[in-house]
UniProtKB/TrEMBL annotation:
It holds the Pfam family ABC_tran. Residues 6-233 form the ABC transporter domain. Keywords: ATP-binding, Nucleotide-binding, Transport. This is ABC transporter ATP-binding protein. One of its GO terms (molecular function) is ATP binding. Signal peptide: none annotated.
Amino acid sequence: MSDALIRVNGVNKTFLLGNEPVHALNNIQLQIQSGEYLSVMGPSGSGKSTLLNMLGLLDVPDNGEYWLAGADTVPMDEEQRALYRRQQIGFVFQSYHLIPRLSAAENIELPLILAGIAPAERKKRLQPIIEKLGLDSRAGHLPNQLSGGQRQRVAIGRAIIMKPHLLLADEPTGNLDSSSGAEVVALLEELNNEGITLVVVTHDADLGQRAKRRIRMVDGVIVQDEKNAGANA
C-alpha cells in the first residue's frame, strides 16, 4: 500500500549461541501504515527485541528487505543508517538511558545539538516539548533528582524532539509503578493520536491489549497479527 511507512519482506536473522544457531527472525513479512499503533508480544527469546532493533536500524537482517519511509535500508552503510535513524526514528527504552550529568532539558535537547541545529531553533522546539511532558518545574533537575515516571517522560521528550515518523518503545513501563506507567502510556497514546507511528514491545498484557493492532511472536515467527476492535480509539 502506498501509505505503508514500513515494509518488511522475507527478513531473517540468525545468531550463534555457543555453536548453536538461533533463528531470531524467521521469514518476517510485515507492513505498518503511517500512524498505526502496534504492540509486539511473546515469550522471552521470541524475537521481539531483535525485530525492534531491526526496525530501529540498530541491526541489519541477514537477508530480505526493510523499507522505511520509502527508502531501502538494508544496503545502507552504518553512517547512512545513523543519519536515517536520527531523521526518522525515536526510541524509548525500559531503563531510560539518560545522561546523568545533563539536566532534564539538556537530555531532551541533545539530539538537536548532535544534529547541528542552531541554539535559537533548539530553544523554540524545546519549550513546547517540556510543557507537553509536564516537566516545567523539573527541567533543570538532573536524572537522579527525578522520579522514574519523570525520567521516562524525559526519555520520551528526547525521542520526539527531532519529530520522527516512528516511535519504538521497548518495555516503556517495565521499571515504573502502575500510576507512573499509566501516565507514560497516556503520553505515548497522545503522541500516536497526533500522527506518530507507535510500536510497543511489552510483556505487559494490559498494555499490549491497548494497541489497535497486536502482533505475537514465537521462536522468531509472527504467529498472530490482528486488529484489536476493543482498543482505544
